[in-house]
Amino acid sequence: MSIRHGLLALLERGQMYGYQLRSAFEESTGSTWPLNIGQVYTTLARLERDGLVRSLPESEAGQRPYEITDAGRADLALWFATPISRADRPRDELSIKLALALTTPGVDVRAVVQTQRSATMRALQEFTRLKYASDKPEDLPWRLVLDAMIFQTEAEVRWLDHCETSLVRHRPAPSRAATHPEAVDRADEEARR
């Protein structure tokens, strides 16, 4: 989710200032994505520059509220109507880590998988605990975010199972020295002794 569109969606509810936006964002996502107040104000400045929000006069307390513009509403409507592409999502650091572990000498790939599995199972247990901690109707947005995290975590566990099975079946390619004809001849000669 982009912070940009998250803030636009929150401003569609009504005028808010930075700290209100941060609190509402974290509340809406169940604090699964902590938002730095600096990110809020930087994003608001860009949204204002792009004509998607406008700042209003400061309150007596010195807080500057923002409101969404018609252009911001159109941008938000387009975002809601457009599916998220797999290519738009951040890279999968775990799959990159395992691919590199397979090709890095001295790395115990099975240990890497087991360490990740333990962490993933702990996360799954925590997400499940949080899911059943509240069933108030107003918690539905947060529970849906939590459900997505649970499904993703379950999928990661299944993928780690697949990785482990693949590692058991994996036969490493011979090293470069072993594929050189002279090295193969020497290895055969040594084996006969």
Question: Would you mind describing this structure in some detail?
Answer:
The protein has 193 residues and is mainly α. Helices cover 66% and strands 3% of the residues. It is built from nine helices and two strands; from the N terminus they run αααββαααααα. The chain has helices at residues 3-13, 18-28, 37-49, 70-81, 93-103, 109-131, 140-169, 176-179, 181-192; strands spanning 53-55, 66-68. Strands 1-2 form a two-stranded antiparallel ribbon. The longest helix has 30 residues, at 140-169. The model has no long low-confidence stretch (mean pLDDT 83).
What labels describe this entry?
elongated, single chain, 193 residues, two-stranded antiparallel ribbon, mainly alpha
Question: In a nutshell, what does this entry contain?
Answer:
With 193 residues, the protein is mainly alpha-helical.
Rg value: 26 Å
Task: Report the helical percentage.
Answer: 55-70%
- Class from helix and strand fractions: mainly alpha
* Uncertain runs: none
Q: How many runs of DSSP E, i.e. beta strands?
A: 2
- Helix-strand pattern, N to C? HHHEEHHHHHH
User: How many separate helices?
Assistant: 9
Task: Give the secondary structure arrangement, pairings included.
Layout: H1 3-13, H2 18-28, H3 37-49, E1 53-55, E2 66-68, H4 70-81, H5 93-103, H6 109-131, H7 140-169, H8 176-179, H9 181-192
Antiparallel strand pairs: 1-2
Helix pairs in contact: 1-4, 2-3, 6-7
